[in-house]
TrEMBL record:
Signal peptide as annotated in the record: none
GO biological process: intrinsic apoptotic signaling pathway in response to endoplasmic reticulum stress; IRE1-mediated unfolded protein response
Molecular-function GO terms, alphabetical: ATP binding; protein serine/threonine kinase activity; RNA endonuclease activity; unfolded protein binding
Source organism: Daphnia magna
InterPro entries the UniProt entry points to: IRE1/2-like, Kinase-like_dom_sf, Prot_kinase_dom
Xref: SUPFAM superfamilies: Protein kinase-like (PK-like)
Classification via Pfam families: Pkinase (PF00069)
Protein name according to UniProt: Protein kinase domain-containing protein
GO CC annotations on file: IRE1-TRAF2-ASK1 complex
């Protein structure tokens, strides 16, 4: 069952409804907020439009929307206005980094978690699926692992790879076709040292 969402929305882009002032995360060129799509709560990633992002919108949306795996966050809808692109993703309750926050931090995740072996297997399965589609994630870190909890508790906890907007096509030679991104603290050693584009093998060492 989806969580209740306020009806005071001021934006509607391709059926994605949201309050333009209601953000819970911001970066340099993007932000994250909650909203609804088809009556269900979603997480909306808003990215500032540039010449490059405007030209790549169609192919990127089609590629990401086709990703269907229990350990990859599902992209439900995408749309633009004059200044931003909006991606509506399935809603998850928390991210992995929130598990390690201090006890007095209100953002800390205190819910159940699977056994650490199951966590590793889930994340490996999601990453293997991304690679099987000739893609690489490119930004592996705890903030991009989301925790989805079912109503039955620990048995339904699912870990999902997020931030698929940084996912890139890989060539037949397993090299990213655009410049590698991501946080240096979580880059594969060979990418950090050699300053090369990412590859399918590099994702195995990140994080």
């Amino acid at each position: 069952m989806s969580s209740p969402v306020s009806s005071s929305f001021t934006g509607n882009i391709n059926g994605i409804q949201f309050d333009r002032q209601d953000f819970f995360g911001k970066g340099g060129f993007d932000s994250v907020q909650s909203g609804t799509f088809n009556g269900q709560r979603v997480a909306i990633k808003r990215i500032e439009l540039t010449k490059g992002t405007d030209q790549s919108s169609g192919n990127e949306f089609e590629t990401l929307q086709q990703l269907e795996h229990p350990n990859v966050v599902r992209l439900l809808q995408c749309g633009n206005d004059n200044n931003f692109r909006y991606y509506a993703f399935e809603w998850c309750g928390a991210s992995l980094d929130q598990l390690f926050l201090k006890a007095d931090d209100t953002r800390k995740y205190n819910g159940p978690m699977p056994h650490h072996i199951d966590i590793s297997l889930q994340l490996a399965s999601g990453l293997e699926y991304i690679h099987s589609r000739n893609l690489v994630h490119g930004n592996i870190k705890p903030e991009n692992v989301l925790i989805s909890a079912g109503s039955a508790g620990q048995d339904e906890i699912t870990l999902k790879w997020a931030n698929s907007g940084l996912t890139r096509y890989a060539s037949k030679r397993a090299q990213i076709t655009s410049q590698v991104g991501g946080n240096n603290a979580w880059l594969a050693p060979e990418l950090l040292l050699l300053k090369l584009g990412g590859n399918l093998h590099g994702n195995k060492y990140q994080g």
